[in-house]
Write a structure and sequence with these properties.
heterodimer; A: mainly alpha; elongated; disordered C terminus; B: mainly alpha; 0% strand; disordered N terminus
Chain lengths: 71, 244
């Protein structure tokens, strides 16, 4: 299911799955669940970059042409 | 070949390693090395204007910095390691920026460098990015989270028990589960599902054939499903009949 949502399933299995989904309520439920699960993972961006690290990187990047930028 | 033979890598050791939130942040400790690399890169590009990418390096870094840090965090599993990996990545990226001919490929290029840096760093510690468990039958291969939730029925009064299960997970819970996945299976999942690379791009970033990538991606998803269920049980987010 997840491979189908990732578009990483081959054309033949994709056709077969889509034909199956037309008649199978359970698999439609599983597809919906897989979509939500995939969404949960996709939205997991992790903790934000700590301010002090961003600041140091900005300082470093500021050694280039656009210095004077604070954050 | 060591890229930076003069640099001293001081691994902070387990005593100072704390998970994500509440951890005291610490400054980049190789700031001078990064500044030198930046200046070297600037000097190098001045004499080679015809092959220099059009976008300034700083712009490229700013565009992908948060995403890159997220990748580092998920790969490493803790902040200290992730910050060090980010430093390694930026230093190496600065030094090789002139080699980037196609500005459109900047994201793939940065993630490839981060992956290679992680591989190199881990190798020195006996930890491998590419090691795949050898057992022929994967214990997680037959596991279906969808079926398990239906059978165990942790929310007997719910009309949408599967979605209720997923709603139990905050971002930090998902991250904790990520950290339990085998790195070789975790990386393809991070690259495709979180960072939006195609399977082909992810295979190139990891330096593996597409078939290997697809197989690892599948095993990563299965480990994730098992990991979410085990986490929910262990943290008592759900209780099931055979749990006491």
């Amino acid at each position: 299911m997840w491979a189908y949502l990732d578009h990483s399933l081959g054309p033949r299995p994709t056709e077969e799955l889509e034909a199956h989904l037309e008649t199978c309520k359970r698999c439609c439920g599983e597809l919906e669940f897989s979509r939500e699960l995939r969404g949960l993972v996709a939205a997991s961006s992790g903790p934000p970059l700590p301010d002090d690290v961003r600041y140091r990187i900005e300082q470093l990047l500021g050694t280039g042409p656009d210095s004077g930028q604070d954050r | 070949m060591k890229l930076f033979p003069g640099s001293v890598w001081e691994y902070p050791g387990p005593a100072t390693r704390l998970p994500f939130d509440g951890m005291p942040t610490r400054p980049f400790d190789r700031f001078e090395e990064m500044t030198t690399a930046m200046l070297e890169a600037a000097e190098g590009s001045a004499g080679a204007a015809d092959v220099t990418p059009q976008r300034p390096f700083a712009d490229v870094v700013r565009e992908y910095l948060d995403r890159l840090y997220g990748y580092c965090i998920h790969l490493c599993g803790d902040r200290t390691d992730a910050e060090d990996l980010l430093q390694d990545t930026l230093i190496r990226a600065m030094r090789s920026y002139d080699g980037l001919r196609d500005p459109e490929a900047a994201k793939t290029w940065l993630f490839t460098i981060a992956t290679n840096c992680a591989r190199d760093r881990w190798r020195t510690r006996g930890r491998m990015l590419d090691t795949v468990p050898l057992e022929a039958g994967d214990p997680d291969d037959d596991f279906s989270l969808f079926a398990t939730i239906a059978i165990e029925d942790p929310f007997p009064y719910s009309d949408e028990l599967h979605l209720d299960f997923l709603r139990l997970f905050e971002d930090e819970d998902v991250q904790a589960v990520f950290a339990t996945l085998t790195p070789a299976f975790r990386a393809p999942l991070l690259l495709t599902t979180i960072h939006g690379f195609s399977c082909k791009e992810a295979a190139a970033i990891l330096g593996v054939p597409i078939g290997t990538l697809l197989s690892r991606l599948h095993r990563g998803r299965k480990q994730l499903e098992r990991g979410l269920w085990d986490y929910a049980i262990r943290r008592r987010l759900v209780t099931v009949s055979d749990e006491t």
